[in-house]
Specification:
This protein is an alpha+beta fold. Helices cover about 35% and strands about 20% of the residues. Strand 1 and strand 2 form a beta hairpin. The chain is elongated.
Amino acid sequence: MSAMIMLFKHPGSYEMHGSRYDYIVIDGEKEGAIEQAIKEGWALTTQEAFEKDKGSEPTEARKLTAADVKNVPSALQPDPLSSNNESEATKAKRAWNEKADKGIKG
């Protein structure tokens, strides 16, 4: 299974973390994919994207490299199909739909 990585640009179309960002998802295991995206202006975090847009260099504590992302053990990377990644709203909607399917109201 490939390691899908989300990258960000500021400003963008989607509301996140108090501002607006665009995002892409790339295969982090594809040779040079992360490095190429970073050269094209994408960032590994929303904070880094915000700072790049404002013309400041990300602080050392926030500066990540492609190697940092690739070295995250797969056990620490979220499984996109896992129910543990569901938001509370999604869980509530799923529970409501399950009740509706069974004909239970309320």
